[in-house]
Specification:
By secondary structure, this protein is an alpha/beta fold. The protein has one domain: P-loop containing nucleotide triphosphate hydrolases (Rossmann fold), CATH 3.40.50.300. A five-stranded parallel sheet has the order 2-7-1-8-9, with helices on both faces. It has a four-stranded mixed sheet with strand order 4-3-6-5. Strand 5 and strand 6 form a beta hairpin. It is globular, with a radius of gyration of 16 Å. It binds guanosine-5'-monophosphate (5GP). The site of guanosine-5'-monophosphate (5GP) has 13 residues, from strand 5, strand 6 and helix 4.
């Protein structure tokens, strides 16, 4: 699909584990001013479903073999490997929504943000969600992963530090000190970009 036929914008939201990006996005998707304009892209992943997650709503959960078949048949626009699992953006899902004039929000890692900016430079806005401080981030990751192996906690902290170093590559950086205030800021960035 060429960029001229794309009417919608792509909002890529990134941030380290514990930055609160998923919660922020959920809040913004329910906002009165954005409810009918902004949709969330649903990625494909090989990781297992967490409690409360639903197939086709949070992710399309597939086997590693199924994921590789999607990549081989060029149905995946961009993909990454995170903590041993594959994650990818479905090409048809994204392009159908954009053609219909919907704006899309995607929660992706740095690789995904870079890939989409390169594929659709005129339509992509990248937003980095930052935690108030690295110590706070470490605390949130440890708190969230209380049942997780120390190894995985260390890996998440290491990845978070790498992501923080790359935050300057984004169009916007938003500190999430307070959920209510940060969601208003995120909503305002999206509205400003939509209204041009
Ligand atoms: P989680 O397992 O916590 O849902 O996601 C792990 C990481 O994968 C997060 O940083 C999330 O933003 C990223 N991610 C989720 N889906 C995709 C995708 O389709 N592409 C890329 N590049 N990253 C993704």
């Amino acid at each position: 699909m060429n960029q001229a036929s794309m009417r919608g914008l792509i909002f890529v939201i990134s941030g380290p584990s514990g930055s609160g990006k998923t919660t922020l996005l959920k809040t913004v998707l329910l906002d009165r001013l954005l409810k009918n304009k902004l949709a969330k892209s649903i990625s494909v992943t090989t990781r297992s479903k967490r409690s409360g997650e639903r197939q086709g709503r949070d992710y399309f959960f597939v086997s590693p073999g199924g994921f590789l078949r999607l990549v081989k048949s060029k149905k995946i626009l961009e993909w990454t490997r995170y903590l041993g699992y594959y994650y990818g953006t479905k090409k048809d899902f994204l392009e159908e929504k954009l053609k219909a004039g919907k704006h899309l929000a995607l929660c992706l890692d740095l690789n995904g943000a870079k890939a989409l900016k390169k594929l659709y430079p005129k339509n992509t806005v990248t937003i980095f969600i930052d935690a108030p401080s690295i110590n706070e981030l470490r605390k949130r990751i440890r708190g969230r992963c209380s049942k997780t192996k120390q190894e995985e906690i260390n890996e998440r902290i290491k990845l978070a530090e790498i992501e923080l170093k790359n935050s300057c590559a984004y169009d916007y950086v938003l500190k999430n000190k307070n959920l209510a205030q940060a969601s208003i800021k995120l909503r305002d960035i999206i509205l400003k970009e939509i209204r041009g």
